[in-house]
């Protein structure tokens, strides 16, 4: 699984851990990715999407089995 958002292309960034003694170690800041069943390129697929794209509404989630059924009120 690549650590990249399929919607916005957000990838890991490189930064530093800095201690009180100012010892510096390299580290990676990974995006908060979630595997979501969504409509992507006209198909329902599981894609890795960052939470900022989910919150912004850039992802169209796939309909579940219960959605879309019409029940009669008789």
Secondary-structure element order, N to C:
EEEEH
Strand segment tally: 4
Strand order of the largest sheet: 1-2
Q: How many helices does DSSP assign?
A: 1
What share of residues are in beta strands? 35-45%
Unreliable residue stretches: none
Q: Helix/strand-derived class?
A: mainly beta
Distance between the termini: 49 Å
Shape: elongated
Radius of gyration: 19 Å
GO molecular function: structural constituent of ribosome
Keywords: Ribonucleoprotein, Ribosomal protein
Organism: Desulforapulum autotrophicum (strain ATCC 43914 / DSM 3382 / VKM B-1955 / HRM2) (Desulfobacterium autotrophicum)
Family: Belongs to the bacterial ribosomal protein bL28 family.
Salient structural properties:
single chain; about 70 residues; mainly beta; two-stranded antiparallel sheet; 4 strands; Ribosomal_bL28/bL31-like_sf; Ribosomal_bL28; Bacterial_rp_bL28
